[in-house]
Write a structure and sequence with these properties.
Blueprint: E1 10-14, H1 19-30, E2 34-39, H2 42-54, E3 58-63, H3 69-83, E4 88-91, H4 106-134, E5 137-141, H5 154-173, E6 180-186, H6 192-195, H7 205-212, H8 220-231, E7 242-245
Parallel strand pairs: 1-2, 1-4, 2-3, 4-5, 5-6, 6-7
Helix pairs in contact: 1-2, 1-8, 3-4, 4-5
Catalytic activity: 2,5-dichlorocyclohexa-2,5-dien-1,4-diol + NAD(+) = 2,5-dichlorohydroquinone + NADH + H(+)
Organism: Sphingobium psychrophilum
Protein name: SDR family oxidoreductase
Length: 252
């Protein structure tokens, strides 16, 4: 695909095997981008790649655990070796789990921070020289949990608040560089991951209702729209901010 808003550009999307990452990857390809699809789920990556190819797009895949900094470097290398440049990094991959405080183990805590904070950090570190060269940008997907206390999500919420702070701090660090770093905070989305989650057995539903929201959850394709904006040249004056696409959850 040679036409479209992202024609000639190279986009790396983590979490591309499903959900928002898959929807974003397909849309970037439809807008002319060549896409490097990154995820731990190789079968899911192959399916996303198939859908892009069927629509006439071009993509490559890298499967690996991004909690390992070496895999982050390899993911970026895959994009550079395949397409010769990198213009956009979308850190979409993440893990959501619900736990009562007493049920959070050290392994659960470490896994959430590995996927939701460590991986985006080292993806940005590996990508930054290439993004500066192309005057590109980063979009980190956080969550409304970065702004609101949400019962039974303490470790997850902590990771998303950390990723939001990371976004703003790196935006300041690279204020004089030709690169933009922003975040996007969705509310509830109807993804495979969310639909299979379970709350603790004794969870207080009145506390959960405080952050579920009044309006229905979004489809991943709905959240793609603000993500595309932040990744595009239309957002050339947007740096170091977080856009909420949460159906009003953080409004009150």
């Amino acid at each position: 695909m040679s036409k479209g808003e992202f024609a000639g550009l190279v986009v790396v999307v983590t979490g591309a095997a499903s959900g928002l990452g898959r929807a974003a990857s397909i849309r970037f390809a439809a807008e002319g981008a060549r896409v490097c699809l990154v995820d731990l789920n190789n079968d899911g990556l192959i399916e996303t790649m198939r859908r892009i190819a069927e629509a006439g797009g071009e993509s490559v895949i890298y499967a690996g655990d991004l909690g390992d900094a070496a895999n982050c470097a390899k993911a970026v290398e895959t994009a550079i070796e395949a397409f010769g440049r990198m213009d956009v990094l979308c850190n979409v991959a993440g893990i959501l789990r619900f736990h009562a405080l007493a049920d959070v183990t050290a392994d659960v805590w470490a896994r959430l921070f590995s996927a939701n904070v460590t991986a985006p950090f080292f993806m940005i570190q590996a990508a930054m020289p290439h993004l500066i060269e192309t005057k590109g940008n980063v979009v980190n997907v956080v969550s409304t949990a970065a702004f609101l206390g949400q019962a039974y999500t303490a470790p997850y919420a902590a990771t998303k608040a950390a990723l939001l702070s990371l976004t703003k701090s790196l935006a300041m660090e690279f204020m004089h560089a030709p690169v933009r770093i922003n975040a996007l905070a969705p509310g509830g989305m109807l993804t495979e991951m969310v639909q299979t989650l379970q709350f603790p057995a004794a969870a207080d539903q009145s506390l959960i209702a405080r952050y579920i929201g009044i309006r229905p959850p979004s489809q991943p394709e709905d959240i793609v729209e603000p993500l595309m904006f932040l990744a595009s040249d239309r957002a050339r004056s947007v740096h170091g901010v977080c856009y909420c696409a949460d159906n009003g959850i953080t409004a009150g």
